[in-house]
């Protein structure tokens, strides 16, 4: 089943790597290879290091123009130390804030933007590993491994248009978790793989493509494939998520999740990305709730555009025209040096 790579890249881009690691019998398959994690953290020393922290100056992204609902693009600190320190703060805030707290979504969105920024600025990573405490290193590695893998999924040139999508509120995280876990109980496919696919495909159902020509619904089934695994509603997560689990079983899961995921989207980069986020969600449930609160950001040729809930275009539109009406969708330029 071929999934719209533009959606995946638009939600999570950037960056690269892949592979598969074997696991012992009775253990859950771990598909994130050591080489991928090594590429992310080749200089990892955690906070046991006594080496001085080197500051790399970067153009900061200040808070942007407020959207109609009052929310803004999260700001990015001006130097590598600031980025690393703020990431650590945000990771602890995500873990320490009740999921139902109104601030949780803002912390999660800032977490998302920091990881997007880190994906585009690998020169920050040595400083990152000097500051991130040992307890957070595995989660940060998996977050970056997911982004490294996402960038390898073929998606062509950055689009000049914004898409014919509607961005809607997804089901609540607890409701989705119940659906994933029931599908896991029925099929043996670990719920974390279903959640990771749902994240990559449509941001947990936020993206509702208005075209019926290609893949559809929260799990992005082609209609022809859908007919093989379900007679339900392709747009309903209560039907689509269990159908995705059944499809993964047909393609080799849960015994061979690498093969099953490759069948869902025929690239090793996709396998590695889904596996990284699945492992992240299994290791820390707060990471699942935070990812559920992430916003849709679209990597257009003119920049990284935020498409909030309420966005709706019936047809693809030049991004510059869209920004005339929604200036808050683009991060503000860095201040003059």
Residue windows where pLDDT falls under 50 for at least 5 positions: 1-6, 12-30, 41-55
User: Strand share of the residues?
Assistant: 5-15%
- Can you write the helix and strand succession as a string? HHHHHHEEHHEHHHHHEEEH
Helicity, as a percent range: 40-55%
Please tally the helical runs, counting DSSP H or I stretches of 4 or more residues. Answer: 14
- Nearest-integer average pLDDT: 82
How many strands in all? 6
From the spread of the alpha carbons, the general shape counts as: globular
> How would you write the strand order of the largest sheet?
1-6
Q: What does the main sheet amount to?
A: 2 strands, antiparallel
State the separation between the terminal residues, measured CA to CA: 48 Å
What is the domain tally?
A: 1
Structural class: mainly alpha
Measured on Cα atoms, how large is the radius of gyration?
19 Å
Describe the structure.
The longest helix has 19 residues, at 102-120. This protein has one domain (5-22, 31-39, 73-329). The protein has 337 residues and is mainly alpha-helical. Strand 4 and strand 5 (303-307) form a beta hairpin. The N and C termini lie far apart (48 Å). It has helices spanning 5-12, 34-40, 80-96, 102-120, 125-131, 137-150, 173-187, 191-202, 223-229, 237-250, 257-264, 268-283, 285-292, 319-325; strands at 161-162, 165-167, 207-209, 296-300, 303-307, 317-318. It has a two-stranded antiparallel sheet with strand order 1-6. A two-stranded antiparallel sheet has the order 2-3. The chain contains 14 helices and 6 strands.
């Amino acid at each position: 089943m071929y999934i719209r790579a533009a959606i995946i890249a638009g939600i999570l881009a950037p960056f690269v790597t892949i592979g598969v690691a074997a696991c012992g019998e009775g253990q859950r398959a771990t598909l994130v290879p050591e080489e991928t994690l090594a590429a992310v953290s080749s200089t990892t020393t955690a906070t046991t290091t006594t080496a001085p922290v080197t500051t790399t100056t970067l153009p900061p992204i200040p808070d942007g123009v407020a959207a109609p609902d009052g929310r803004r693009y999260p700001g990015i600190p001006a130097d590598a130390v600031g980025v690393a320190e703020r990431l650590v703060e945000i990771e602890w805030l995500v873990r320490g804030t009740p999921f139902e707290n109104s601030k949780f979504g803002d912390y999660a969105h800032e977490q998302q933007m920091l990881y997007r920024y880190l994906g585009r600025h690998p020169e920050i990573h040595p400083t990152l590993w000097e500051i991130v405490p040992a307890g957070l290193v595995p989660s940060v590695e998996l977050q970056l491994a997911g982004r490294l893998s996402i960038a390898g999924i073929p998606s062509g040139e950055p689009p000049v248009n914004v898409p014919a999508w509607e961005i809607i509120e997804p089901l609540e995280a607890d409701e989705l978790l119940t659906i994933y876990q029931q599908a896991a109980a029925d099929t043996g496919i670990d719920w974390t793989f279903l959640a990771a696919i749902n994240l990559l495909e449509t941001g947990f159902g936020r993206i509702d493509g208005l075209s019926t020509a290609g893949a559809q619904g929260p799990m992005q089934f082609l209609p022809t494939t859908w007919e093989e695994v379900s007679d339900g509603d392709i747009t309903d997560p209560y039907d689509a998520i269990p159908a995705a689990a059944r499809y993964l079983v047909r393609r080799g899961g849960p015994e061979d999740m690498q093969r099953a995921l490759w069948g869902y989207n025929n690239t090793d980069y996709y396998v590695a990305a889904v596996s990284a986020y699945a492992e992240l969600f299994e290791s820390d449930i707060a990471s699942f709730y935070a990812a559920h609160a992430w916003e849709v950001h679209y990597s257009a040729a003119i920049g990284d555009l935020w498409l909030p809930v309420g966005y709706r275009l019936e047809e693809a539109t030049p991004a510059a025209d869209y920004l005339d009406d929604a200036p808050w969708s683009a991060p503000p330029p860095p201040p003059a040096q």
